[in-house]
Amino acid sequence: MPTELEELVGFIASPNPQIRLLATENLVPYSTAQPEIFKTESLQPIKNLTFLVKDHPKIAEHAVTMLINLSADRDVLEKLATDDKFLDVAFRYVTNAAEPNANLLSMLLANLAKWDAFKSILNRKQPSPKELSSDDLVMNQLLDIFVKGAEGMYNKAADYDHLSYLFADLTKHAEFRHYFLRSQEYDGVIPLTKLKVFTEHKSDVRRKGVASTIKNVAFDIPSHPSFLAEDEINILPYILLPITGNEEYSEEETMEMHPDLQLLAPDKSRDPDPNIIQTHVETLLLLATTREGRELMRDIQVYPIIRETHLRVDHEGVREACDRLVQLLKADEEDSTEKTRVEEFGQGTALEAEEEEDEDARIVEV
Question: Cα–Cα distance between 20 and 13 in angstroms, integer?
Fold first, then answer.
């Protein structure tokens, strides 16, 4: 005989909207406290919840919230991430400028990206909303609402910050790293250049997700010339500014720094989150795996910035990353062969990044 809670779960499929509303409202806490009650009948309650995404906004809010929490379960995660009909609805609704639950859907999509097969969305298409002026590729639409939707400028009910976590997870796959590095036909813009402007955004979530995305894409070593070129991605100032404070440097150091870092305000502060600072320094480490990258960093005086970051940020991960970067920048290029140095460093960084990503790959809960 089913328990009272299991009976309540059954009411989410009631034809009566008032009953559905009452059931979903009362079940939200149990999506974290007792998730097993939603796994009966071959996950039929999960399927019922996916139907409610199209229901009255308040019912849909409760349903999506529960799906966010329940996606921490691997069985549920797989069911949601491989349900094409549900994904059609989720992508259509999240890109709708009038969707009141767009932020929750962004969180859910970010969780679903932790299922490897979810990477198939790279080729997914749907008609673009007229307000978006994008093309029919879902990835381009998600990136455009992330950019245009910052601080509620596209949808007054959403900021889409959690889509940055979606991008970060997707860029663990080589095909998505390539996507972010190739200009798109509909606007001629390299997708990564749309993200780099948010490395100093006020939202902690947005800054963290963007920093992780940039770092993951930087694992594409052949693309480093594009990363560094001022007329292409030009990533260095967007990585260096968040890790730079209001320290004073010698006149010689200042004059040789990147122009964007030469006339900073006296109240300039570095990113308050040491984990984000660590991510940016690790991106610099990746860009230092080529001789061209190291020489450019020496030319624009990256070392003094790293020196001050090491001194002023009391965080073991930051200091370790700074130490490793300093060793590369201060080393004699003739000490060993280029091929050996780059391969050894690149392999070590990739392994450590995978371990860090496993640590940070947490399911968002509401």
Answer: 7
pLDDT in tens, 210-269: 999 999 999 999 999 999 999 999 999 999 999 999 988 888 998 999 998 988 888 999
| DSSP label at residue 53 | G
Strand partners, 137: 125
* Dmax (CA) of the chain: 79
3-state helix/strand/coil string of 210-249: HHHHHHHHCCCHHHHHHHHCCCCCCCHHHHHHHHCCCCCC
Is this prediction's pTM over 0.85? yes
CB contact set of 359 (below 8 Å; sequence gap of 6+)? none
* Residues facing residue 125 across a β-bridge: 137
85-144 pLDDT, tens digit per residue, is 999 999 999 999 999 999 999 999 999 999 999 999 999 999 999 999 899 999 999 999
Return the axis-axis angle of helices 236-243 and 302-312, rounded to nearest 10°.
30
Cα–Cα distance measured from residue 14 to residue 353, given in angstroms and rounded to the nearest whole number: 47
Cβ–Cβ under 8 Å, residues 88 and 100 = no
> By C-alpha distance, which of 164, 235, 232, 247 is closest to 201?
164
